[in-house]
Structure formats: C-alpha cells, structure tokens
Amino acid sequence: MPEMPEVDALVAHLRERCVGAVVAGIELGSFSVLKTVDPPLDSFAGLSVTDVRRHGKFIDLDVDGLHLVFHLAKAGWLRWSDRFSPARIKMGNGPLALRVRLDTGDGPTAGFDLTEAGTRKGLAVYAVRDVAEVPGVAALGPDPLADGFDLRPLLARRMQVKRLLRDQKIVAGIGNAYSDEILHAARLSPFAIAENLDEDQVAALAAAVRDVLSAAVSEAHGKPAAELKDDKRTRMRVHGRTGQPCPVCGDTVAEVAFSDSSLQYCPTCQTGGARLKDRSTSKFLK
C-alpha cells in the first residue's frame, strides 16, 4: 500500500506534468471505483488543472475549482503516459480502473491511469466541488510533517501505539510499513500502550516519526512512479524482512501475523528479547 512518502512523490510527479494542462476527458474502466455522482466526470472536460495536493494518503487534482480526489488503497497505483491510444478504455478492462486524458499542448494524448491489482477492490475516486466532501479527507488527523505538528497530545489514548500510528483519524498518512519502521527506530514494542509511554519514549517516538518520514519523502521524490514500490521495499529495515537480521543489532526480525496483514519487529531492539504472540484473530490492524 502506498503511504505518505510514495503518495507525496506521486503528487510532485503529477504536479510537474499536469498543472496548466487541460482535461480532455475522464474515462471509467470500473464502475465501482467512482464513489460520487455529482459533479459528473464529463464536467471536468475543458477545464485546466491548477494544482495537485496531498491529504494524508489521498491525492487531490484541483481542476479549476472542481476536485478529482483518489485513494489508491492497498493494491492501487498510478501510471503516467506521454501518449495514449485515441481509443476509449472499456469497462472491465483488467486492472485499469480510470483514465484521465490531458492536453498538455500537443493534443489530448497524455495523462494517467489508475490501476488496481487483485480481487479485493479498495481504490476509490471522488469527483467533488469541495475536497471536504470526501469523508476520508474530512476525518483526517494532522499531517505528521506539517509545521507545528505535536505528537504528544495524540498519545493520550489507551490503545496500542502501532494501531494509533495507523489510525488516519489520529495521524494522517502513516500505514503498516512506516509504522513498523518508526517503532523500530524508536525502539518501542508495537503493542505498547500509548498513554503509558514515559517522557523518553514519547520523545523517541516523536523523533522517529519525523526522521523516518522525512527521510522516506526525500528518498522517494524525483523517482519515476514505476520505481517507487521497489524503492520503498529496499529502504525497509524490519517491515517485510521476517527472518532476516536486524540492521541495528543483528537479531532475527520477527513477525506477528493477522488475518489479512502482518507486522515485523526486532525482539532485541523493541521488546527486550521477548517474542510477541500471534494475534491472527484480533481486530488490531483493522
């Protein structure tokens, strides 16, 4: 799943290519991906893209005051093309969910596709007049890289810190992968209770949130969209590295499996050598 650093890089990628271009058309490849009915997609045609922004993990294409907002979910992705075929896409055409055709000055040939792999569909697109009309955007917590962000008051909750970091209503933009990386950097158990953290642990966690995400955003920017997924994997220290040595202490990275996901951690760095119990029937990551 793309998280804040990858989404931020995609936003920069789109902003560079889209701002000033005219929307030639928006074509649906999957009826279920569109979550709104008004304004209709054809109302974007002929309008110019004025900005591209990120809200948590949402991408917001500002088109002369109308907004095309999308969330890539677990298996969605964005694919840019400098030259599309003139033929319109067809409904049910494999992973292709939506195409945005743009006229960048050489005719309506460029643009981007939204695709989604697998059978569990979560990719969501919203056409709105105000981005606050998107329920997920309206409910977002503060952005951890925004000026003035303060993690401390957000920790006054009796919930596991891993779950807290992933809750978009509390902190926007962090998902499963970067929460694993942040907790490893902070040397905290994913099952630690947020409100029980002492001052040193809170300071370590706040620093890890800032440092891990800032470094990841810096690494992701400037890379082609097609390379962002693989680049993210290569930068992970514990996430997705079960059975491999921890790069800090050399202990073996361990895993806790859930019904549809998993987390990774280092027992030596994070849990005092203890192995966490498998909670595959838990609602922890839902």
TrEMBL record:
Transmembrane segments: none
Residue span, FPG-type domain: 237-271
GO molecular function: 8-oxo-7,8-dihydroguanine DNA N-glycosylase activity; damaged DNA binding; DNA-(apurinic or apyrimidinic site) endonuclease activity; lyase activity; zinc ion binding
Formamidopyrimidine-DNA glycosylase catalytic domain span: 2-105
Keywords of the record: DNA damage, DNA repair, DNA-binding, Glycosidase, Hydrolase, Lyase, Metal-binding, Multifunctional enzyme, Zinc, Zinc-finger
GO annotation terms (biological process): base-excision repair
Pfam families recorded: Fapy_DNA_glyco, H2TH, zf-FPG_IleRS
Metal-binding recorded as keyword: yes
Taxonomic superkingdom: Bacteria
Cofactor: Zn(2+)
Cited SUPFAM superfamilies: Glucocorticoid receptor-like (DNA-binding domain), N-terminal domain of MutM-like DNA repair proteins, S13-like H2TH domain
PROSITE patterns given in the database record: FPG_CAT, ZF_FPG_2
Catalyzed reactions: Hydrolysis of DNA containing ring-opened 7-methylguanine residues, releasing 2,6-diamino-4-hydroxy-5-(N-methyl)formamidopyrimidine
Protein family according to the UniProt entry: Belongs to the FPG family.
Name the UniProt record assigns to this protein: DNA-formamidopyrimidine glycosylase
Organism: Aeromicrobium marinum DSM 15272
